[in-house]
Structures are given as C-alpha cells and as structure tokens.
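Reply to dn_fold:

You asked what the input looked like. This is it:
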Amino acid sequence: MHKRFLATVTLAVAATSLFGTVADAAPVDPSVNERTAQATLPKVPCDPKGSNSRDGQLANTLNGQLTEELKNAMNAYRVSCARMIVDAVHDRGLTERAAVIAVTTAIVETTLQNLDGGDATSVGLFQQQKWWGTREQRLNATWTTNRFLNEMEKLYPNGSWKTGAIGPICQKIQVSAYPDRYGVQVVDAQRIVNLLWDDAPVDRTARGPLFNRTKWSGSAGWDASAVAVDGNANITDTAVASIPNSSMYAFNVVKGSGVWYRLRDPKTRKWVAEATQLDTNPNISAIAAAGEDDGTLHLFTVVPGAGVFHKIRNASTGVWTSRQVDTNPYTVAVAAAALPDGTLHLFTAIPGSGVWTREFKNGVWAGSANQVDTNPYITSVGAVGLPDGTLNLFNLVSGSGIWFKSRNVSKQWGASDPIDLNESISSLSAAGLPNGSLHVTAVVPGSGLWVRSKAAGATWTNEHVDTNGKIFGSYTAGLNEGTLQVGALVNVN
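and this is what came back:
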C-alpha cells in the first residue's frame, strides 16, 4: 500500500502448520524513517473501553515468545489491538488462519497500533487509504478488520485463502512496496493468535474484589499490605468520596447489579461489614464520586446509550435523590471535583470529542457543558479541587500516557503537560490533600499501581505502590487527617 519498514532479518525456518508453509523472506532495505514518523502519530484506542489487566498479562507472556520486530515490544495497548482483530475474525465465523493473516498484516503496517495518520491518506491498524472507507470507519478496529477480511475473501474466493503461504496473501491484499516483509512476521502473528483465539468467545470484562492501601502522613509511608474493602468478585469499577470528618465512602459497580457502597469509619479506620445498594441499574459502566465541605455526597453513573446520572445525598437528612445531568450517549469516563466556593464540577470523556465539563452551583446544573480538552483519544479522567480554589484535570491519552492541566482561580485553563508517558497505562484516578499536594494513581497492566505526587511548587515524584499485575482499576482519596488512600480492583476473570 505504501513504503514501510522491514527490520533486516531472515526467517530461517520453513514452518508448516495450520497457516501452511512460510515463504522465504529476503531482507529488504529498511525504511527507518517510516517507523520514526509513525512514532509521532496519535494512537487511537482499538477497544473503546481501553486495554485491561489481562492484556497486560498477555503482553508479558508474549514478550518472552516473540522473535521479530515486536520482540520485547508488546504492551497492553498492542495486545488490545490484536484482541480486537481476533474477536472480529471469530465473530465473523472464520478460522484461526484468517486471524493470523490479519495480525501479520497489522504487525507490518503499524506494529499493532491504531494510528491516526500515515502515508498519504492512510490511517488505522492496516493503514488503509481513503478509498477503503471513511476516516472514522478505518479507525474503528472492528470495522477495519472486517473491511480487510472482505478484501481477502474477494481476492481469495471459495476459501482459497486457507491454503498457500500467508506472506503473499497479505501482499496481494495490501499491495505493498515491500512484499517480502509479511512472511517474516507470520510466526509471531501465529503466537499472538494462539494466545488470544481460545479466549475470543469468553466474557473478558475485568472484575474482582477491592483493596485499600494507606499512605500515612509524616515518615510512616505506605502500608506494607493492602486491606480488603469488598470481597465481591464482580466489581467492575470503583470511585471514592470523602467528607471533612475523614469518613470515606467507596462506591462500586457490581456487574449486573448496579452500584453498592461501603463506609470507612474515621474513628476505627475500619470498613463496615456490609455493602449498601444505591442504584439497581445493571447497565452502569463507569462511576465518579465527590464530597463537599458540608458533608454532601455526590455520585455520578454512566449508562451507555443514555448519558450521565447524578445522585446526591443530603448532609442533614442522609436522603439520596437522583436526576439526569448529561444526555450524551457516548460518554466512556467521568470524574468530579468540588471546590471551596461550593461549586461542583463534572468532567466527561467523549471518544472523538475530548473532555467536557459542567458546573453545579446552588443546586442547579449549568444548561450546557464546556469543552475543556479537544484531544479525541482520552479514555480516562481524574479531577481534583484544591483548597486554593484551583481545579486540576488529569487525562489519559491512549498510547500517550497521562496529561495534566489546571484552571486557576480566575477560571482560566492552562495548557496540557505530560506527567507520565507510559503508553501501557490503562486507567487513572486522582486526589488532593489539604496541604495542596496533588496525587494521581496510574494502573499499568502487568506492573500494578504507580502514584505520582506533586507538592505545591515542586516537581512530580513517582512511587510504585503495588506490584500486583492483575490490578485493573483504582480510586484515590486525600483525607483531612492527612492520609492518602488508594484503592485497587484485582482482576479474577
């Protein structure tokens, strides 16, 4: 389709398996500039929900198996892209060999990355030109894989793609200037598909119990071990809110059951034994929570296709009321932050549109939301209101890490700055402490939890708080007592 890079390697095997005989691959002059250019392109999520902890685990496994261009280069994002390809093939009813053909091609074209750009009009996993479909279609991993498979079946009718060397099949579909590169990647593609294929029909929604870890003020540091908060193995998302007396409320989405919450008593520092159900909607996909200085609690729930709903607990009566605050059906992530002036701020991440914010003041929501970040690849958000009146936003950009921006007391937003460029980060949460410090927790599949902190006027520091590679979600809370609390969801699926 266009000139691309080939590492100067030869495949010294004539492998025969379900994908047939691998064609000999002659070395081709490498086009290093192309890979360099690709490294600067935005990476679009392959899975709209982002990568998960299972993706990170499989990446670690593959890094011990792959031998060609992706040797030691697999991460949760690349695995999520391969997973979407394999799922599309499986859902179409084709055999594993079709998945190997598609993954081989995506390795060569983009090293398994959904790139928003490329040579001429090329975009997406397969670097398809504009005549293959609209830009939006070609950046949709499922659509673009099916478009590739359509072309494969058109060029190889009656299942003729099931025989013969895979490299030439990829080349006939892609019409590359470097036809020999595909054969080099077939064995690695087979290894990737082998790992993913059997799991294709399985519900891989990350879910598991919730644990909490405390960082004490002063020199005591972090707890040596985490404390169990909720042993329910079907929790899919979590959020936390605290109020001035240092009471902490953990809200959890339980798959198929809605939202349940638990209280951590500020005196005993123990979590209550039983959870209380707050919302019975089984379709909730994401939540956010915030507490105000007067003790009011706020919970926000995302219902795909319907929008965002707001529950508020009156500090005096303890009664919860509910209303819909945003009707955008495409919201994938939310965050909320309260400021000392009594205002509450909701942030929503919309794929392709960026992050929008809406203000709640004197019991009334603003009539419309304001766009605060136009980056279309944000998949997770965190928000913090500090005692000095500043509003702080953390955005996870797919394949690009965590970016931070702040709104001053004059309500002017600054520019976004990167604080963690690890492209394997799958989600984040954030909090502030009364001393004005900021803290953002990053989930790195296969590696655990990392917390970056910034004291007022200082630079960011980084701590590896939990090494459990199965962690897939987190919350972060700063209590008035001066402790930092981090929650972790551990995948059991």
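Confidence is low (pLDDT under 50) at residues 1-30.
Hope that clears it up.
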